[in-house]
Amino acid sequence: MKIAVTSKGLNLDSEMDPRFGRAPYILIVDTETLEFEVVDNSINVNAFKGAGIQAATMVSDKGASVLMTGYCGPKAFMTLEAAGIKVVSDTSGTVREAVQAFKDGQVTFATAANKEAHW
Amino acid sequence: MIISVASGKGGTGKTTVATNLALALGADVELLDCDVEEPNAHLFLHPILQRTERVETPVPQVDMEKCTFCKKCAEICRFNALAVLKDTVLVFPELCHSCGGCMLVCPEGAITETGRELGTLNFGTSNGIRFINGRLRVGEAMSPPLIHRVRDAADPQLITIVDAPPGTSCPVIAAMHGADFILLVTEPTPFGLHDLRLAVEAVRVLGIPCGLVVNRADIGDEKVFAYAQSENIPILLTIPFERRIAEIYSRGKMVVEEIPEWREKFRRLFLDITGVLAET
User: Fold this and answer.
1) Using a CB-CB distance cutoff of 8 angstroms, which residues of chain B are in contact with residue A75?
2) The domain spanning residue A92 has which CATH number?
3) How many other C-beta atoms can be found within 10 angstroms of the C-beta atom of residue B278?
4) Which of B139, B140, B122 is nearest to B131 (CA)?
5) What is the pTM of this model?
6) Which residues in A lie closer than 8 A to residue B86 (C-beta atoms)?
7) Which of B80, B86, B92 sits opposite A83 (nearest CB)?
8) Mean pLDDT of chain B
9) What are the structural domains of chain B?
10) Residue B264 near residue B25 (C-beta atoms within 8 A)
11) pLDDT tens across B229-247, in order?
12) Structural domain of residue A89, as residue ranges?
């Protein structure tokens, strides 16, 4: 299966970015083969509003079924939920560590946003 | 004729000047409270409210029977108010700026308009003064569309006095745009001067003639007066920092009613404004 991980860099050993909507990259990782695709999220980094909504749509378009990130706001969470994507928030470390934690079943799926909306 | 009372800095006395000016004129005048985030002119004029209108702004709603998830609506939206997913579309009405673009580009005609409440428009009268204010819904982020609706309700047959919000951004521009004259209210302090400069820059961009009221005129320093002279902005009224005036204000009373000579001063202010306009 494919999982999306917010990242500061371009490969599996990059540090995760705690932000979702405004993370510079989102890595779409195949949990079996560890093959991954880098999604450039730079258009959303400077979005006036709704960065999380856009990022959530992109993650859905890439066919990921899980998102691992640090913080997820209410509009992003609502969009991910509507797309049937499960969210693991409060995650840190490298992208590889996040994927491993997921494979080991060491994650809890969020039931709500863990960050307030930006005003 | 439309006179917008603005300031840059908050708390300089815009509402005091706007309400006293309206009351001094007494007839053929209306007051539009365009400080829709915190309207307060009614606290001084005590209007009898006659009518309230709910004000909405159009936002999209999507007919899921017709939608083919082509994403054209989401692509045109500058504000990410629509999210098109595999088998559903989410609308975030609070992000929508009501441009109507999504409706225009939808090839299936699946998008129609519904309303998001911006706030209310309230109509009343006070001592022969026509009174209108806008009141923004708590949680609503966009005040200019509501301010435009307050402005649209003006009666062109009357002298229109607009009580503008403080600052220099979109809500203030909405309250000043299209006015014949901008009456800037300031106080002679470094804070007053700093924000007055910003307000004057905004007024210059709009190209509207302006004049100054210096409130609490005997505090602070001389720099506001020097600035007004150097910028060639006429000082049309000075209001002293007087205990009696402050007490009248603090009780929600009107200076022009409590001290007759102030009625004359505010009438003179209006005549001086018409004088400045005659010269331009």
Assistant:
1) 92, 95
2) 3.30.420.130
3) 7
4) B122
5) 0.82
6) 60, 83
7) B86
8) 96
9) 2-55+119-279 (3.40.50.300), 64-109 (3.30.70.20)
10) no
11) 999 999 999 999 999 999 9
12) 2-103
